[in-house]
UniProtKB/TrEMBL annotation:
<dbReference type="GO" id="GO:0009236">
    <property type="term" value="P:cobalamin biosynthetic process"/>
</dbReference>
<dbReference type="Pfam" id="PF02570">
    <property type="entry name" value="CbiC"/>
</dbReference>
<protein>
    <submittedName>
        <fullName>Precorrin-8X methylmutase</fullName>
        <ecNumber>5.4.99.61</ecNumber>
    </submittedName>
</protein>
<keyword id="KW-0169">Cobalamin biosynthesis</keyword>
<comment type="similarity">
    <text>Belongs to the CobH/CbiC family.</text>
</comment>
<dbReference type="InterPro" id="IPR003722">
    <property type="entry name" value="Cbl_synth_CobH/CbiC"/>
</dbReference>
<feature type="domain" description="Cobalamin biosynthesis precorrin-8X methylmutase CobH/CbiC">
    <location>
        <begin position="23"/>
        <end position="215"/>
    </location>
</feature>
<dbReference type="InterPro" id="IPR036588">
    <property type="entry name" value="CobH/CbiC_sf"/>
</dbReference>
<dbReference type="GO" id="GO:0016993">
    <property type="term" value="F:precorrin-8X methylmutase activity"/>
</dbReference>
<comment type="pathway">
    <text>Cofactor biosynthesis; adenosylcobalamin biosynthesis.</text>
</comment>
<keyword id="KW-0413">Isomerase</keyword>
């Protein structure tokens, strides 16, 4: 559509999808429809989809090499609080910190002031020299390489020399010199890994793989805390006073984003969130009213959450609902 401004200059309005959640859903649906994911275990398939999404090329799914346990080991490490060791700042920036299930530290040492001298002494690149600084943090960590083949080569050398083993290696160095060779060496190692052979790779793919691990890891973390099968990625912390119910605005936003799909379970969850907004208003005036609302509303969302593919609303933990007549004390309601 073309419109004319007051100055007489013609401007064109484009018709395109604007809803970010709808864009994500359509993107992932396209990848799953076009990619051949049958050879992947379900948890590794999630990583493959994210990697394809990061580069816009469905065909990379056919080329990915992996060990079947890479996703399970990586997620377990994140849940245990392991650090994420990255080879460049671009990977560090690409990782969504709020998704990390245990506020995991992202270790990027490429800017360490000692690196130039260390690289000069070792006769290697700064990226490879940086791996020397990882020695004390390698054990059960998640190592992510999205830039420098020399970093991956040196990491594999350290492991052959007896350095502590990381839980998982996400190897996506990119380039024309050493990238293909370093990833081939990774594929021949006894490490848990995910990699894309050849010259292709990059920080976007590497950080996308971490985000896929972190997203599933945060779900498992919330499940362990609440006893639910599938829980929100970032649950609201327990609240301590009536005024804290203003945090329900976060509930409302999350439900609008996460429960937009047209599945019956998510529609139930969406209905729960609409009621939860009324719960927030009720809580500021009366504890019993808020508790009644909670008891009526929680069951559909809890039932919908039984499938790990349904991400339900962001909501307080069950223990955060107020008990009738209490003055600042909290107890879990009877479902």
């Amino acid at each position: 559509m073309t419109t004319e401004s007051e100055e007489g200059v013609a401007s064109r309005r484009f018709s395109y999808l604007r809803d970010p959640e709808a864009i994500y859903r359509q993107s992932f649906a396209t990848i799953r429809a076009e990619a051949r994911l049958e050879r992947f275990p379900p948890d590794v398939a999630g990583l493959a989809v994210r990697v394809a999404h990061a580069c816009g090329m469905v065909e990379v799914v056919d080329d990915l090499l992996f060990t079947p346990d890479v996703a399970a080991r990586g997620r377990a490490a994140l849940l245990a609080g392991a650090p994420v060791l990255v080879d460049c700042r671009m990977v560090e920036v690409g990782v969504i910190r709020s998704r990390l299930p245990a506020e995991n530290e992202i270790v990027s040492l490429i800017g360490d002031p000692s690196l130039p001298d260390l690289a000069c002494r070792l006769g290697t690149t700064r990226s490879a020299a940086m791996v020397e600084l990882w020695r004390d943090r390698l054990e059960d960590s998640v190592v992510v390489i999205g830039n420098a083949p020399t970093a991956l080569f040196r990491l594999l050398e350290l492991l052959q020399e007896g350095a502590p083993k990381p839980a998982a290696i996400l190897g996506f160095p990119v380039g024309f010199v050493g990238a293909a060779e370093s990833k081939a060496a990774l594929a021949e190692s006894d490490q848990a890994f995910l990699t894309l052979p050849g010259r292709r790779g990059g920080s976007a793919m590497a950080s996308a793989a971490v985000n896929a691990l972190a997203r599933a890891g945060s779900a498992s973390s919330a499940s362990a805390r609440t006893g639910w099968t599938a829980c929100p990625p970032r649950p609201v912390r327990s609240m301590t006073a009536p005024r804290s119910w203003s945090a329900a605005s976060g509930t409302w936003r999350w439900c609008r984003r996460m429960a937009a799909a047209a599945s019956p379970g998510r529609r139930s969850c969406w209905s729960w969130c609409r009621r939860s907004r009324r719960c927030a208003a009720a809580a500021s005036a009366s504890w019993p009213a808020a508790t009644r609302c909670a008891s009526e509303s929680a069951s559909p969302c809890r039932a919908a959450s039984r499938s790990p593919r349904w991400w339900c609303c962001r909501r307080p933990r069950p223990s955060a609902w107020p008990a009738p007549g209490s003055a600042g004390r909290w107890s879990r309601p009877a479902w």
